[in-house]
Design brief:
9 strands; 12 helices; 14% strand; binds (3S,4R)-3-hydroxy-2-oxopiperidin-4-yl beta-D-xylopyranoside; 349 residues; 8-stranded parallel β-barrel; alpha/beta; TIM Barrel
């Protein structure tokens, strides 16, 4: 009996080691070139995905718990505990930590817009609240969070002034962007400060983003980089247009980061898959490899963050995407490596 147990254990160790050898660490493969990050919820630190996180990634970002609605749900009543867990994990495991995000129209708490008498908050009050939020959050994680997405999705290329017509704009004009960067810089002068957005490769969007960023630079605003969300699909956009966009911002002397990478199997807005899943997973592997090659060719780009770890947890099957069975990440629902993983690994060679 004992001998059989020992044999089983030995066999178990062998299988585990073999699995580890077949799936070398992505973080190690890219070491010295790119940080490899993942967006996570605190629950994922102890879920079935935790070993993958520890093996393949050397950077994390909060998928949700640092967003303003989550971290300051009521004015002055901060909910730091979930974010603290992530920061403690990053520090304990020697991983880098990105901060996401200090301002986003979709996650601004409602209290921001009303004053004590229940009237619409004034410009001055909103900017004072923004200052207090940023000082508190950036100040708390000073030295622990090395880069912040200061503003998220503020560009709207359909507006003549390129800025999203939201409550931030309605209340403060374009001041909120500049001030958010200034407040963040004052709270942690060493933090790298990013303007983050999606579809940054689309010409009109890119031109708008460039115009806004140039304006910030001209006014001496401490903006250090552009965050490209990179929620792409197997089919689009082209790597050439992504490359061009990265070049546009590199020429301005800015850093680039890929901040929310995932590769959907679905065509834009499609409700069903256009091919067999097996075929699409193969194409996805090629796509990850092609993307990583472009990123590696950009010396100003030093970090790529995936928006999740494995297909068992991805935003692309919820909310507006409910009903889909998307598999956009590097590992499958059983945490096994996919062609996407192999593609990413091979691109580092
Ligand atoms: C998403 C999260 O993944 C979801 O869990 C949440 O319900 C909504 O936000 N762009 C961003 C991210 O900048 O913050 C979004 O994250 C995905 C799109």
């Amino acid at each position: 009996m004992i001998r059989r147990a020992a044999l089983t254990m030995l066999l178990g160790t062998f299988v585990l080691n073999a699995a580890a050898q077949e799936t070398p660490s992505l973080a190690k493969a890219y070491e010295g070139r790119l940080k490899i990050g993942a967006a996570i919820e605190p629950s994922q630190l102890t879920s079935a995905e935790a070993p993958l996180l520890a093996t393949h990634f050397n950077s994390i970002v909060a998928e949700n718990v640092m967003k303003p609605t989550d971290i300051q749900p009521k004015e002055g009543a901060y909910n730091f505990a979930p974010a603290d867990k992530l920061v403690a994990y990053a520090q304990g495991s020697g991983m880098a930590m990105r901060g996401h995000t200090l301002l986003w129209h979709l996650r601004t708490p409602e209290w921001m817009w009303t004053d004590k008498e229940g009237k619409p908050a004034s410009r001055d009050l909103v900017l004072a609240r923004l200052k207090s939020h940023i000082e508190t959050v950036v100040g708390r994680y000073k030295g622990a969070v090395y880069a912040w997405d200061v503003v998220n999705e503020v560009i709207d290329e359909k507006q003549p002034n390129c800025l999203r017509k939201d409550k931030w704009f309605a209340t403060t004009g374009d001041a909120y962007i500049e001030q958010a960067f200034r407040y963040a810089h004052a709270a942690d002068p060493k933090a790298r400060l990013y303007i983050n957005d999606y579809s940054t490769d689309e010409p009109a969007k890119r031109q708008c983003l460039e115009r806004i960023v140039k304006g910030l630079i001209a006014r001496g605003v401490p903006v250090h980089g552009v965050g490209h969300q990179m929620h792409v699909s197997v089919f689009s956009p082209s790597v050439e247009s992504i490359d061009e966009s990265l070049t546009t911002f590199a020429r301005l002397g800015l850093e680039n980061q890929v901040t929310e990478l995932d590769v959907s199997l679905y065509r834009y807005q499609a409700k069903s898959l256009s091919d067999t899943e097996a075929k699409l997973l193969q194409l996805q592997g090629e796509r990850y490899a092609a993307l990583m090659k472009v990123f590696l060719a950009h010396p100003e780009l030093r970090a790529v963050t995936l928006w999740g770890i494995s297909d068992s947890h991805t935003w692309l099957n919820h909310g507006e995407y409910e009903g889909r069975h998307d598999s956009p990440l590097l590992f499958d629902r059983q945490q096994k490596p996919k062609p996407a993983y192999t593609g990413m690994l091979n691109a580092a060679k």
